[in-house]
Each structure stands twice: as structure tokens, then as C-alpha cells.
Amino acid sequence: MTNTKERAKDTCPLVYQCRLPLSPRTVNHLADLLRRHLKAIRSRWRILPPGKIAVIVLAVLRHDQRLADMAGGNNVSESTVRRWRDELTGLLAAQAPRLDRALKKVAKQGGEVVLIDGTLIRTQRRTGRADRRNYSGKHRSHGLHFLALTDDNGRLIWISAARPGRTHDNTAARHDHILAHLRAAGLGALADLGFRGLDNDILNPVIVTGYTASRTHKLTPGEKEANRVLAVGRAPAEHCFAHLKNWRILTKLRTDPVRATLLLRALLVLTNLEVNR
Predict the structure, then answer these.
(1) pTM to 2 decimal places
(2) CA angle, corner 180, sides to 177 and 185, nearest 5?
(3) What angle do CA 194, 197, 200 make, to 5 degrees?
């Protein structure tokens, strides 16, 4: 038996159309961003116009289309599509707000609390000891840990850098000095039980978490009601993560973990464009 990579003589590449469930506002924003970038770097030529490049990159991010498939359907090379993806991801990530500025903006608009939560973005499992720290025992899978802050309406306002999947929510929050930034902005935060112990100020707590039962202590009716009210208040944060993970490239990250932070912050900008239209 002979192995060959040559195509049969009667075959030809097939191209199909696919609907991209995004608004023209998002496509125009990305295309205008690329036009300004090309003007700034004085690049006078690209093989495709900025609008077409924006659609290709959005298809990669939204539908997790393979780079080779998108390249073949548009008569460009796979490396060209990868370069476009990385270029536009970097431009979008630069528009993501910093933590202190995001909190000051919420306070300036009259907000009193924000919602904080952590999530795991699954990644491909890699061999070797270096990938062991990416294993999350809670989720029983490999991934990267991210912290996110939303306002009380569920609008994503900030997302942290990528950390190994085994990172605890409290550890990540301490590294980002979440508590100090909240106090500086004069804001409170609603969080789940994963953040218990982060704020030990009994008289003037900034981060509010629920009550937990133990073998020796059962929850009182008042504590159960407090947990219910807190769960209702935190619901927009869960909705926010649902909108973020509509970008199917996050189903299982195949990109370099170093680039994962830029990717998530770029998707933050795109998610807010879609949700707040």
C-alpha cells in the first residue's frame, strides 16, 4: 500500500457559507480599528480589505474555525490568517480597561457594588511537569484561571491575567490587590464562598460572601435568606460568563497560554459591543 498526499484528479476544494451571528457594529468597530492601525504604521497594502479581514478574524473567534480552513476559503495562507488574528487581538486587548480605572468609572457613574467571580477556561492537555499546575482538581481538567469583575447589571468591566488552573480565587485576588483597589474606589463587592477569608474586616467589610454550614452549625433561616438574596444579586455575573463563553474559541484553548490573557481581554471588548448594543 502506498501513502500519498496528492488529491484525486476529479476533486477540488469546496467552499461553503456560514452565518456569523454578530452585529454590523462589531464588524465595523474591528475594521475601523484595523484601518487606524494601518494608517499609524503606514502600511499601504493588504491582500484583503480591512472589512473582510475583520469578518475572517471574527469567524475564527466566534465559531473557532480552523485557520487553515479560513485561509483556504479566502485564497490566503494559514500564517497570514494567524497574523491577522494575533494583530487584531492585540489591538482589541489594548482597549480593555485597567482595574483601577474600571472601578473608578463604576463609582463615578453612581455604582455601589461590583460582582467578582473566577472561572476556568479549559486548555489542551500538554505533556510534562510544566503542565501539572494547570490541572484544576475542582473541575478535574486542565485549564487557565481568570478573575472577572462585572457591574451590578452584568456588564463585564475587567478581567485578570491568565494563571494556572490550580490557582485559588483568593490567591488570584490577592495577587491583583482586589481588596485595596475596591477600598480606594469606595466600592463593595459580592462574591461566592470561594472568596471567604479574603476580607477579614468584621466592622467594615468590602467583600460580602454567603454563609456556609458545617457539621456543628446548621444555617439559620436568616442565614439561608441572606444566601438567597446574595445568589440573586450575583446572578448577572454568571450571565456575563455565559456571554463571554459564547465565543467558541474558549471551548478549549489551543493558543499559546502566554497569549491567553490578550485573547480574553480582546473578547471582553467584543462581548461588551455585542451585549450593550
Answers:
(1) 0.86
(2) 125
(3) 145
